[in-house]
Amino acid sequence: xxxxxxxxxxxxxETPPGIIEQDDLLFITLPTFDSDDIGRISSDRYRMVLGARxxxxxxxxxxxxxxxxxxxxxxxxxxxxxxxEVAAMVAALVSRQVLPLIEQLELRIDGLEDxxxxxxxxxxxxxxxxxxxxxxxxxxxxxxxxxxxxLSILVHPAIGxxxxxxxxxxxxxxxxxxxxxDSARSLLQSVSETYRGAVADQTNEIVRxxxxxxxxxxxxGLIAGxxxxxxxxxxxxxxxxxxxxxxxxxxxxxxxLWLYFSRRGFVGAxxxxxxxxxxxxxxxxxxxxxxxxxxxxxxxxxxxxxxLAGGSQSGDSEDQA
Length: 321
Prior knowledge:
The chain is an alpha+beta fold and 321 residues long.
């Protein structure tokens, strides 16, 4: 083993993600991500020095994907894999660290949908935290995708046709990850809109119930106010049963108003008989319903044709007889 001494063209702390060509070497800075003790995701960087027979990875903190790749390279058949293919594998493995996070993200989105339908106040906090993590991951993967794209078309002695094909495969993998993260971001947006819609529905329901109660109590208050005036000759005031008759009439009037509002749909949920038949069915059931109807119609038509054919055969036999 020969001692390797080189100087990075730009200070590590000031190196933006990208490619720097120097003689027969490529100095590549790639983005990655890290998480702190509380699980918050942040962006980071690692570097690679790539040559025709040289590959050096430089990173401040341990990156499990890179360590696993070096262990595989040390114990595996290195003669069957070129240096540039190992470099592409390292980049692909670093981006594949996103896959477990995406699986956890999908599970958390499923749970957030239930919270959103219930108008749970925790929904917005969870959505904002997950959206920030998704944006960070997308920024990291999209920047690496662009670098893989540049390396797949770069003409350099350290890459060659084999390296271009390897980096192109890494570019395709990163592109799929970006699409998945975009879909997750859209799902989070829909969860947020669902929560706001559920909160608005709850508010509307509360306002509607309060309005109905106000509409019922308003005429009752009017009646009580009229019969409570300081006059001598007030109807039913001279009878012992006048008070109870007035209370009974007001109760009947209130119940009548409640039934009226219920029939008009101002109170309570809609009746199941009034809902469309497709409501509550899954996509597969709704999609196959027309097919089932057509199949039933075709089956009925075939049965009718069989009856007609049987009748004509019996008529022919009678004619022959």
